[in-house]
Design a protein that fits this description.
four-stranded antiparallel sheet; alpha+beta; 2 domains; three-stranded antiparallel sheet; elongated; 30% strand
């Protein structure tokens, strides 16, 4: 009886293993693109910059565009910065003035932020760049 039970258990396990393997293979062979992965390329990995941060630091999809909170703190850095400008754009060459404020602050974008959007903080007095951060996520067209 003991040998029959062991034999039956071994047969059941052997029959289940191919089913597990088949499921694993079909999942790995799935060629459908998930809705959240519109591209396999990464636009940018979020870069750490203690002077300017964005939340969320990375977006999962390109559309719809998202609202992002930009926070900055330049108090005690590079002299006495009293007013900063936050510039934003899809590349560093097409930046537009987005916000202005004191050495510590935050501002929310509209629903126009996509992965790859650049945010730059500059000293208003002399235009000196104090830092930049890029929204992470998939590469958008």
């Amino acid at each position: 009886m003991y040998k029959s039970t062991r034999f039956a258990t071994a047969i059941c396990v052997m029959l289940m293993l191919p089913a597990c393997q088949q499921e694993s293979t079909s999942a790995a062979g799935n060629t459908a693109t998930p809705a959240s992965a519109t591209s396999s390329a990464i636009a940018a990995a979020p870069r750490a910059n203690p002077l300017i941060v964005i939340e969320p630091a990375s977006l999962p999809v390109c559309q719809p565009a998202a609202v992002t909170t930009v926070k900055w703190n330049v108090r005690g850095t590079r002299g006495n910065v009293t007013t900063v400008e936050i510039w934003a754009g899809v590349s560093s060459s097409d930046m537009k003035l987005f916000a202005e404020g004191g050495p510590v602050g935050e501002a929310r974008t509209g629903a126009w932020t996509i992965p790859g959007t650049h945010f730059s903080i500059r000293n208003k007095a002399d235009g000196e760049s104090l830092g930049e951060v890029i929204e992470g996520g998939p590469k958008c067209k």
